[in-house]
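Support request, priority: normal
Reporter: lab tech (M.K.)
Component: structure prediction queue

Hi team, I submitted a job for NADH:flavin oxidoreductase from Streptomyces lycii yesterday, and the status page still shows it as pending. I've pasted the exact input below so you can check whether something in the sequence is tripping the parser. The sequence length should be 405 residues. Please let me know if I need to resubmit or if it's stuck on your end.
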Amino acid sequence: MAAPPVQLQAGGPRRPRGAVRRPDHPSAKVNALTTSSAAERAAEILSRPFSLGSLDVRNRIAMAPMTREFSPGGVPGPDVAEYYARRAANGVGLIVTEGTYVDHASAGTSDRVPRFHGEDALSGWAAVVNAVHSAGGKIVPQLWHVGMVRTPGAPPFPDAPPVGPSGLPMGHKEPGRTMDKADIDDVIAAFAAGAAAAEARGFDGIELHGAHGYLIDQFLWAGTNRRTDAYGGDIPSRTRFAAEIAAACRAAVSPDFPIIFRMSQWKMSDYKAGLAKSPEELEAVLTPLAEAGVDAFHCSTRRYWEPEFDGSDLNLAGWAKKISGKPTIGVGSVGLDTEFTKAFQGERGGVAGIDGLLDRLERDEFDLVAVGRALLSDPAWAEKILHGRTDELSAFEASALATLH
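Reply from support: The job had stalled in the queue. We restarted it manually and it finished. Here are the results:
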């Protein structure tokens, strides 16, 4: 079914909430949430259950995918299972795992990032699934191919070259090899095999990593896709690779097994890059993906409160839902007042309020909210937010990443 026509209009009026209403910017600190009425509001909005195909999530809080490189040899061990289960036990409804490499030699660039192929790795993931389910949560793996972001000579397969739609380098990386049709077919098959393995191992769905300048996004973006065949040119043609991956995954799993697609405008090498300069261009990206079997879009932004296009306060997730009619997940510096690039440059931030986030969820701008760094630093973030214990929230410190569990 085609996406509905795009209507250029604002995201809707805000309803007054009295003294507990705060601006939609995280510089509004968390102390306002310590009032009982604000805490009750947060619990009411975030505690609503959500369903997507066969996936039933107990609340609207998801854990965003975050690479940690804690899986030696690409195998997630008991510590990884404990890491995810701890967040689930503390109220996170849906876990989206860190990116995990599909079965293609050029997919990865580290032997400490988990993979999603091989009996040893898949058995490790099955243990993660069991731990999360036992803790009351649901979990989907993020299937990943880094494409041209791969460092030549790096593990897990040192001889594998970086590959991409046109072999163009990303950021400081070196040029690589342009993918031919056989390469494209191999990668599509690898994603489909990952989807089938996820369902067989008890996962609750999958997420396809189509964001941040990695392989799928390299096809989507005109800056890295200079092809003149059926996989390059205009937006629908550049979207063909992603749509074929989605269709192959849909064919490999049950009809109600959810497929989530993560997308972004920005790239790791270019924060000002964009797939779509207008809602009409965004529609051209989303429509083939929705028709191919994508059930929901996870829209990565650096700051969830920023409007995506002029003339509306909708963020990227809001526009994706409006255009496609599909559920969406919003994300971007939730619960923190420092944008993540500054945080990883050593700038210490504080804990921020979420009233603006609740405004957006309340008017159904998007359906779930993914929380990243706040959950890294504070595994009980969801539990504290849902039960009004916001005075106990912890700020994120990048220096503590090596010991996070």
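The radius of gyration is 20 Å. The longest strand covers residues 94-101. Let us know if anything else looks off. Ticket resolved.
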